[in-house]
Amino acid sequence: MSNLGKITPIRDARSSVGELVSIVIPVYNESANLHALWTRLNPVVSALGRECEVIFIDDGSRDDSLEILRGFAAGDPRVRVVELARNFGQHSALLAGFRNCHGEIVVTLDADLQNPPEEIPKLIAAIEAGNDVVGGWREERQDRAYRRLASRLQNRLTSVIVGVPMHDYGCMLRAYRRHIIETVVECDEKAAFVPALANSFAKRVAEIPVGHAERAGGESKYNLFSLAHLSLNLITGFSMLPMRVLSLTGMGIFLLDAIFAAILLGHRLVYGPQQEGALWTLFAVLFFLVGLVFLALGLIGEYIGRIYIEVRRRPNYIVRAVHGDGAADNGSHPPPR
Ligand code: UDP
Ligand code: MG
Q1: Cα-to-centroid distance, 110 and ligand 2 (Å)
Q2: Is 3.90.550.10 the CATH number for 2-237+315-329?
């Protein structure tokens, strides 16, 4: 069945291998890019001069991505393919990849060649220099203007919420130390945003500039709605700040209201009941308060929604099969609960 529940004992016999590097790549309908990706990734992996495994997660692709990936796995013992039962989303796919990898250093990468595989050695070097997490920073992003603007806002917000300032939380070209990956997997969080979650466990975090290209082929899987969805998940997943702000605003408004009521009362006593202006003011205040109540309800709803999703304890992803060398010893079995 599923890979739901407690952490799979990731440290099996293989993890005794020194600095094994795992490269984890989520794939959803990327058949247009996979051959080009592998053509560029393969020499990079070989040139690393160390043991390396490449884990592709097929996130329920409807094109022939899975067949192409299985072809890679059949032809190269370093490649493994985790086949998910349907589309669970990029971050859930990453979690499935993390649970199925063994590397002491874990590198993540997009499949659409927006992240140049040639940058991987730089990330690994930065991890070996003593960092727990190394993020790629797309200084010259090749995306639409609205994406860049949305990203800038999101990076500011994420930096405040997570408490670890970074220029680029959205770049998936990143590297992690094994203990960070294990903690992230152990969280088994629904609607996880991997870079933020990882940073919240890291002691030393670095950011290095990396190249960024336009999507090689196919289309982005994100639209404005799914980006907004991701942002809300991020806010409610990491912080109680919005609720606190609401409570404080509530208190402030209560105080102002009390003063305002006193003024209105004074006005009434001095000028008598014919002052219509006061009535309109009252309406204005009332509307403001109604708006605020709606906002508060929405936000509280967001948190309750999260609790609901957590207590349901549905799996983040379901692994249908693992293809490739060494597939039998991991991932395809449900973990002990
Ligand atoms: N992806 C995935 N599952 C999804 C959506 C995306 O595995 O539901 C993968 C996708 O194949 C790609 C990466 O996540 O490798 C980033 O997706 P995309 O390029 O569409 O995002 P963008 O670069 O536009 O932010
Ligand atoms: Mg992309």
Answers
A1: 6
A2: yes
